[in-house]
Amino acid sequence: MGCVPPAQVISPPPDGGAGATDACAADSGQGNGYSITPPVIPASVFASLSTGTTAHAELCANDRRHPNFPNDGDVFIRVFCADVDGGTVPNVTSLVELENLLGVGFADGGQPAFALLGHSSSLVSRFVSAINPRAILFTPPPADGSTPSGYVLLSYSRGDSFVEVAAHDPVLNQVVLYLVVFQSTCDASDAGCTPADRLTPGDESGWTGVTSYTAATEINDTILDCFQCHQPQGTQSPTLLRMQEINAPFTHFFSATTAGGRSLLADFHAAHGQAESYGGIPADQIDQSSPQLLAQLITAAGFGTQPNAFDSATIEAQVEQSAPAQPSLNLPAGTSPAWSSIYAQAELGNEIAVPYHDVKVTDPVKLAAASALYQSVQSGQQPPSALTDIRDVFLDEGVRDMGFAPAAGLDGGALLVQVCQQCHNSRLDQTISRALFNVQILSLLPASRKQAAIDRLNITDSTDPLMMPPPALRTLSSEERRAMIETLMQ
Ligand code: HEC
Ligand code: HEC
Q1: Does the beta carbon of 226 lie inside 6 Å of ligand 2?
Q2: CA 490 to CA 487: how far, in whole Å?
Q3: CA geometry: angle at 341 spanning 411 and 31, to 5°?
Q4: Does the beta carbon of 424 sit less than 6 angstroms from any atom of ligand 2?
Q5: What's the pLDDT score for residue 204?
Q6: pLDDT at position 40, please?
Q7: Ligand 1 center from residue 423 Cα (angstroms)
């Protein structure tokens, strides 16, 4: 039985006030399957970051490699550090404003390229599906196939309270990542933010402030770290744009030109209708979502060879052969040997989680209920307070293969590798505290480090930012925690 808290609060007030997620956390991983309770990125993670002038000073510290800083920086620096050169830093109150400032907005006849994604393997994986997609708006790739410069990609999904940005620095010829955390009116209210505030068009405007961080500063040693995935080979290697499904038919992307893409669009419209914009993309454009253009930009930018790429054409063909109702119906689940071989790389801790083998990650029954509820609230038949967390629609039996939980039947050692090594390894930045716990040299670690890991594994309050693994990325059963603890005690 899933967890249905009485009054949902999806981002508790920053003082860590009791969110509904507390009540739910206790139940996760009980019973025979996994119940996907609304996962959390604890508000206290953001609370630990600097704010206001300190954050601005960090963002706008001149790296001395830009003689005309900020004017020869990437577009993000030019906009948000304008004051360094006597300009004004804009006061951003909505997503659309942010998109326009960065040159990927639709206002004033702007025509950015964009793609909507119905399943993510990133920081926001547990929040994204066809009903709450990840929108990526980006500079269109040069039509002549030349190498792009100064481009930007902006990514947003509802309910996260942040926007992710990748901007190309033309001077250093490298990708720079930014996290923009925004506050909304509801954040300051006693009740915190509810699904009606966060999972509707209302999330995209009415912002009371934004704070921006570069990936290279303090978010580096938090669970929001971008580099574990975008610079997986460590600090001396390039920062990558990522798109595991970089080849047609781009399995989890909305697209009117692929069978899977059309079935995801249908699921989206079943909840959001034909008249609702999403992520700043006008309603009448949603169906133009173009993974082709995203792949083209990422390839032209030099990232066409993706780590552990997901071979969409082969995997989709194998899945359909094993389960002919796919892609529109994802029960029974499909199987694919090509998928199993890339999954094995993630299981061995060499790669980040791979996308699910089937097009849809949603449970058809839960999705239909969430869509009907969303419709009835948006049309005024039910009050806003009736809206629950419509992101809680994942197919329970698929969560291991979606990468939200480890493979079944692993022993403690193998679990530590699959679940922890992505962030605790020898490749990533070794100068930060996270590196003190390195799964690749487990047998060499002093007892005190292993004890620290045991202590982290014993945390059960998912709003505690010290909980390991971070609940936004992985769910474990109590048996799995115990198996890992036993291995660490040896
Ligand atoms: C757990 C791995 C992971 C983490 C952590 C992560 N990303 Fe990503 N990111 C991805 C993947 C995978 C994609 C491709 C689309 C998808 O699967 O959602 C992506 C896509 C993006 C995109 C769209 C452009 C592109 O590269 O495709 C941006 C922008 C982005 N991430 C920014 C960030 C920022 C900023 C951070 C840190 C605050 C971050 N990411 C943290 C895995 C990650
Ligand atoms: C998504 C990335 C990520 C994953 C997955 C992850 N961790 Fe962490 N871990 C971090 C970060 C970031 C820190 C540093 C911040 C902190 O101390 O909480 C950290 C800190 C730690 C520390 C403290 C290190 C020290 O001595 O300061 C331990 C121990 C730890 N993690 C254990 C684990 C274990 C055990 C797992 C798997 C069950 C795990 N982590 C999975 C990101 C991760």
Answers
A1: no
A2: 5
A3: 40
A4: yes
A5: 98
A6: 67
A7: 15
CB 422 within 8 A of CB 349: yes
Question: For the chain, first and last CA: distance in Å?
Answer: 35
What is the distance, to the nearest Å, from the Cα of residue 304 to the centroid of all Cα atoms in its chain? 21
CA angle 67, 69, 74 (to 5 degrees): 115
Sequence-ordered list of residues with C-beta below 8 angstroms from that of 167, at least 6 positions apart, any chain: 74, 75, 76, 77, 102, 151, 152, 153, 175, 176, 178
Q: Say what the pLDDT of residue 9 is.
A: 56
Distances in Å between the Cα of 370 and the Cα atoms of 312, 329, 433 are 28, 17, 41
Give, in order, the Cα–Cα distances in Å from 96 to each of 127, 163, 203: 21, 12, 11
| Residue 162 CA, closest ligand 1 atom number | 38
Supply 326's token pair.
């796919």
Burial 149-170 (b: 16+ CB within 10 A, else e): eebbbbbbbbbbbbbbbbbbbb
Token code pair at residue 442:
């487990």
Which residue numbers in the chain have pLDDT < 70?
A: 1-40
Task: For 204-220, write each residue's pLDDT tens digit.
Answer: 999 999 999 998 877 88
Residues 6+ apart with CB under 8 A from 321: none
Exposed, middle or buried by CB within 10 Å (0-12, 13-18, 19+), for 443?
exposed
Compute the distance between CA of residue 326 and CA of residue 305 in angstroms, rounded to an integer: 28
Q: Are 276 and 378 in contact, with CB atoms under 8 Å apart?
A: yes
- 440-469 pLDDT, tens digit each: 999 999 999 999 999 999 998 888 889 999
Nearest-CA residue for atom 2 of ligand 1:
122
Burial of 280-312, coded b for 16+ CB within 10 Å and e otherwise, reads bbeeeebbbbbbbbbbbbbbbbebeebbbebbb
Largest CA distance in the chain: 64
- Ligand 2 center from residue 328 Cα (angstroms): 38
Six token digits for residue 483? 């198996």
pLDDT at 26: 34
CB of 457 sitting under 6 A from ligand 2: yes
Report whether residue 126 contacts ligand 2, using a CB cutoff of 6 Å.
Answer: no
Q: How far apart are CA 458 and CA 437, in angstroms?
A: 16
Phi, psi of 360 (to 5 degrees): -95, 140
- Answer whether 432 contacts ligand 2 (Cβ < 6 A): no
CB atoms within 10 A of CB 408: 8
